[in-house]
Amino acid sequence: MIDPDLLAAASWTTEPAAWRRTDDGLEVTAVRGSDAWRHTSYGFVHDDAHGLLAPFGARDALEVSFRLDYDQQFDQAGLLLRASPETWLKAGAEVSDGVPQVGAVVTHGRSDWSVAPVPDWSGREVTVRASRDGDAVTVRARVDDEPWRLVRVAPVDPGTQLLAGPYCCAPTRAGLVVAVTGWRRTDPDPALH
């Protein structure tokens, strides 16, 4: 389910090729070449991911769900937290070397990237959760109703204003369509463990 209050408060970082409401949520078509990355290893800067973002508080949590029904190199969807073009975090499922991977990119001027293969997630509903409290954002993910997996704990200045919501990118091809099936606010995690 898409929270109508989040949708009403949100705007796109970069407009996708197309998007529409559906009975199940949102359908977003990415522009070929869209991505979010800064410098590290590749040497380029991309700041045209399709993020539909709403305010994200200093003690807040957000969950984004989507179907992992894509399979092309670097196709990706998930949750984006953004302070500026130089400071952001994206987490979700990305296809790399032919395999779906759960992972995150944390960017403070320069991007890093961590992934773990999740081939059994293909064709299923993935939920990514970001929980912000104090000086950290904790990212967890799961498929269907399986247990949450810790993806990343990343630092965040408690005074930083963030926007957050679903995102998708298609760095290498046209025609990626992502079905966002859920976007909701919830309580922050009570503890890391």
Polypeptide structure, described:
Strand 2 (18-21) and strand 3 form a beta hairpin. The mean pLDDT is 94. By secondary structure, the chain is mainly beta. Helix content is 3%, strand content 56%. It is globular and about 40 Å long. Strands 1, 6, 8, 9, 10, 11, 12 and 16 form an eight-stranded antiparallel sheet that branches. The protein has a single domain (4-186), classed as Sandwich (Jelly Rolls). It is built from one helix and 17 strands. It comes from Klenkia taihuensis. InterPro entries: ConA-like_dom_sf, DUF1349. It holds the Pfam family DUF1349. This is Regulation of enolase protein 1, concanavalin A-like superfamily.
Question: What are its keywords?
Answer:
eight-stranded antiparallel beta sheet; 193 residues; Jelly Rolls; globular; mainly beta; 17 strands; seven-stranded antiparallel beta sheet
How much strand? over 45%
The helix content, as a percent range, equals under 10%
Helices, by number, come to: 1
End-to-end CA span: 27 Å
Extended strand count: 17
Question: Ranges with pLDDT <50 over ≥5 residues?
Answer: none
From the helix content, strand content and strand pairing, which structural class follows? mainly beta
Which architecture would the CATH scheme give at its second level?
Sandwich
- Biggest sheet character: 8 strands, antiparallel
H and E string: HEEEEEEEEEEEEEEEEE
- Report the CATH topology name: Jelly Rolls
Tally of separate domains: 1
Overall mean pLDDT: 94
